[in-house]
């Protein structure tokens, strides 16, 4: 009875899409535009983490970006109604760490559980929606946080999580010189309603940033951090460097051309999640009638007609 009552009263989970920073690793491409607006094959980079949040069942999304880039994001995304979601915009004046997102959006979060997706991350898996919705439900119904780990060849570039013999997370270290494992924490995080309270306790690191790893450690130390390991059949791409940006584009092109399956389309995800109806889907497909993306959206609508 108590559990059912708590679940009923739980606030809907919100989502933050962090699209700030200066994109220095992608200069000179990012001297005149945001990294998250660069194309990954046939869509802006930001579409991919946006669809990740949408697949988790999140419809209230805060977009955090720089003062100079905000007008471009507003022109691209509007208020979100075309995708059946709600966008709010906030400015990050200087990139002072990922955990800063929860301080910038504290009043908007308003005591709700919240997910954070980095604007240059792409996650693809056939069963991804189920994983994401389970993570969202977990932080809505109980105390704690959920992060996702993925095996990489260069773990020293990331926050690295190590596990004990039973698969429980033991430690998380930010960019370690000698990593204890090759499991990197991806740019997708789910937190309970205490996240802003915890974020206020994070202190600047040696490089002067509010590290997301330090926030995750708070949950780890109290024993409420859940780590989902993404195994075979999953792809995680950090498109923040030239090589990885090209790899991400090639990956999307391969999936879409060989399987006829859209990757990172907010319109398609909105339709499949029930956020928009078939008429709205086809209307958006018509606006892009001269593109392959528009053609594929039209096929989605016809198949479901």
Automatic annotation (TrEMBL):
Nucleotidyl transferase domain: residues covered: 14-253
Organism: Komagataeibacter xylinus
Keywords recorded for this protein, A-Z: Magnesium, Metal-binding, Nucleotidyltransferase, Transferase
Lineage: Bacteria, Pseudomonadati, Pseudomonadota, Alphaproteobacteria, Acetobacterales
Family to which the UniProt record says this protein belongs: Belongs to the glucose-1-phosphate thymidylyltransferase family.
E.C. number(s) listed in UniProt: 2.7.7.24
SUPFAM superfamilies registered for this protein in UniProt: Nucleotide-diphospho-sugar transferases (SSF53448)
Keyword hit for ATP-binding: no
Protein name in the entry: Glucose-1-phosphate thymidylyltransferase
Lineage top rank: taxon: Bacteria
């Amino acid at each position: 009875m108590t559990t059912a009552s708590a679940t009923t009263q739980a606030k809907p989970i919100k989502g933050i899409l962090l699209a700030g920073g200066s994109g220095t690793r992608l200069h000179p491409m990012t001297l005149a535009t945001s990294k998250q607006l660069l194309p990954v094959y046939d869509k802006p980079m930001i579409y991919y983490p946006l669809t990740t949040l949408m697949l988790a069942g999140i419809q209230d999304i805060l977009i955090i970006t720089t003062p100079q880039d905000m007008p471009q994001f507003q022109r691209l995304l509007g208020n979100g109604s075309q995708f059946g979601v709600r966008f709010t915009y906030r400015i990050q004046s200087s990139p002072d760490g990922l955990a800063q997102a929860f301080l910038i959006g504290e009043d908007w979060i308003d005591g709700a559980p919240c997910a954070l997706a980095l604007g240059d991350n792409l996650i693809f898996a056939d069963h991804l929606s189920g994983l994401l919705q389970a993570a969202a439900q977990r932080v809505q119904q109980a105390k704690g946080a959920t992060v996702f780990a993925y095996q990489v060849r260069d773990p020293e570039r990331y926050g690295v999580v190590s596990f004990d013999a039973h698969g429980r997370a033991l430690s998380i270290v930010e960019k370690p010189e000698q990593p204890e494992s090759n499991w990197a924490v991806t740019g997708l995080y789910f937190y309970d309603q205490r996240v802003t309270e915890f974020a206020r306790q994070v202190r600047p690191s040696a490089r002067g940033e509010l590290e997301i790893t330090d926030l995750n450690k708070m949950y780890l130390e109290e024993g409420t951090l859940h780590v989902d390991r993404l195994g075979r059949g999953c792809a995680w791409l950090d498109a923040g460097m030239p090589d990885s940006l090209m790899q991400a584009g090639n990956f999307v092109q391969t999936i879409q051309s060989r399987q006829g399956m859209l990757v990172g389309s907010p319109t398609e995800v909105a339709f499949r999640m029930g956020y928009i109806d078939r008429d709205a889907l086809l209307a958006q497909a018509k606006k892009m009638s001269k593109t392959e993306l528009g053609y594929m959206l039209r096929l989605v609508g016809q198949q479901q007609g």
